[in-house]
Amino acid sequence: MELPEFDEVIAFIEDGDDFLLTSHVNSDGDAIGACLALTRMLDGLDKKATIVLQDVPGEPYEFLEGFSSIMAAESVPVEATACVAVLDCPSLDRIGRIQDCLDEQTRILNIDHHAGNVHFGAVNLVSENVCSTSELLYHLAVAMGVPIDPALAEQLYTGILFDTGGFRYSLTKPTSMEAAAALVRLGARLDFVADRIYNNSSLASLKLIGRAIDSLELTAGGRVACLHLTRGDMRSGDPETAVNYGLKIRGVEVSMLLKEEAPEHYRVSLRSRERIDVRAVAARFGGGGHTRASGCNIDGTAESVRAALLEEVGRQLAAAA
Questions:
Q1: Please, is 44 exposed, middle or buried when counting C-beta atoms within 10 Å of its C-beta (0-12, 13-18, 19+)?
Q2: What is the pLDDT of residues 159-189, one digit of tens each?
Q3: For the chain, what is the largest distance between any 2 Cα atoms, rounded to a whole number of angstroms?
Q4: What is the value of pTM for the model shown?
Q5: Is the pLDDT of residue 149 over 70?
Q6: In what helix (H) or strand (E) does residue 293 lie, and over which residues does it extend?
């Protein structure tokens, strides 16, 4: 596998002393793992790092070293920061309110693995050849000679495990498995991390997945599964994994989950099998992500949001026919 050059990244890190780290809104396992891992790497180099996110998730990431130090954007005074590292994010508009901490003097380090990254940093460490931003950081740590202790190994392993869907998604490469194996040898607890990520739901969130499944309808001749959670449902939690249940049905190529976060404001999760690029679907509505797993936000009624999504998915299905 061909990796990008690390020299500019290393120079960026060596030149700074105090860094703000952030990632995309609705931060996931790779974003959290990568932010915590880079913080630990910087700490080992006697650098200061502060993680600020628009959305700080709760379960299941509390077990990771340093998780309690993550700060929510709303609790941090807005002031320009000299050095910012943006991780796992293809464009600056995806970091939400953290943009208020940037000005024309801010130097940005962009570390990401998403296709379509717009290279918005002064320094860009971007590669689509890795499964996750956490895997990219693993290679950076090796290149820098940073010691990987069990806590750092577990942070990186968590990001890899999450973004590969437990090594099941198509973006999983042989190098992903090799990096994961190396991290397990360095102290990441394979069974413990998997248990915390996949078997750590509350009773309420599990029942919420049941409500999402009850709402499931098939369209487009059984090729598209639509799931829907109302604003009332969402008061019980956010069952992100519910969207995956649509793909468990034989013949379904795209699954979409509509979650009403505010009146007539929906956060949409999209998943697909090998023929359909749901990142292209999400991009039509200002969202993004991966070819097989993406998301976006759309305003409107449930009916109008669903209709708009089905129209775009229909175009993708027709193009793939």
A1: middle
A2: 999 999 999 988 899 999 999 999 999 999 9
A3: 58
A4: 0.91
A5: yes
A6: strand 293-299
Which tokens in the block code for residue 28? 């996931």
Q: What is the fold, at CATH topology level, of the domain defined by 7-198? A: inorganic pyrophosphatase (n-terminal core) (3.90.1640)
User: Token pair 């090799």 is at which residue?
Assistant: 178
Strand bridging mode 265-272 / 254-262: antiparallel
Check residue 247 and report its DSSP letter.
G
The Cα–Cα gap between 86 and 81 comes to 12
Fold (CATH) for 203-320: Diaminopimelate Epimerase; Chain A, domain 1 (3.10.310)
Place of tokens 């296709």: 115
In whole angstroms, what is the distance from residue 6 CA to residue 165 CA? Answer: 27
Q: Which structure tokens are listed for 79?
A: 């002031």
Q: Which residues contact 125 (CB under 8 A, 6 or more apart)?
A: 4, 6, 8, 9, 109, 110, 111, 112, 136, 140
Q: Label residue 51 exposed, middle or buried (CB < 10 Å: 0-12, 13-18, 19+).
A: buried
